[in-house]
Amino acid sequence: AGPVRRFLEVGTTLLALKSYLGERTLIVPQVRTELEVVQNWTGHAALKLILNASPPWPSEVEVPDIAGLEDDIETVRLSLAKPGEPQTKHIGEAATIVVARLLGIPLLGMDDGDARRIGRANGIPSVNSAVIAAEMVVRGQLSESDGFQVYDAATPAQVGAAEWNELMIEGDADLQTAPGVCRPVLTRW
């Protein structure tokens, strides 16, 4: 839910994200529930619009009914949980990692650094909201002002304009050498 939330925080950038990623984006049922219930989606017109569209965006992945799947999700959730956190915390990230591994999903979009680390340990690379925003700016799909606002919302307080400018330069260089791919260059968040 992280990338959806970050883009939702900045004007109409969620609609730009939807347009940019299109049908390539899938979510697990647990993340859809988080967006609908936990995030109070009725208060956000853009989120309500995309979740109620026909078809809804992001599309919900068909999760196979496999014995032990819920146990696998809980194992990953427990590896993300800190003492005292509620049992519902990290369920979306855990389900995303387990289902992506099961279905061979090639790339995760998530902001939780620990979840991204576990995804990589399971052979699934990831990008965060900051990198997605930068890639969209480099490709002309988002204004630099909006891109920086998403980037700023998705990165720690000590990360700022200097790192954003570095990312823009690297992203532009990547685009020049491989127009079809903008590699994720910032993976520390």
Counted beta strands:
4
Major sheet details? 2 strands, parallel
Percent helix, as a range, is 55-70%
In angstroms, what separates the terminal alpha carbons?
Answer: 15 Å
User: Order of strands across the widest beta sheet?
Assistant: 1-2
Beta fraction: under 5%
Global geometry: globular
Radius of gyration: 16 Å
Oligomer: single chain
Q: What pattern of helices and strands is seen along the backbone?
A: HHEHHEHHEHEHHH
Uncertain regions spanning at least 5 consecutive residues? 181-189
Tally of separate helices = 10
Structural class: mainly alpha
**Mean pLDDT across residues:** 85
List the topology elements.
Elements: H1 2-8, H2 13-21, E1 26-27, H3 29-38, H4 45-52, E2 59-60, H5 69-80, H6 91-103, E3 108-109, H7 113-121, E4 126-127, H8 129-138, H9 144-154, H10 161-177
Parallel strand pairs: 1-2, 3-4
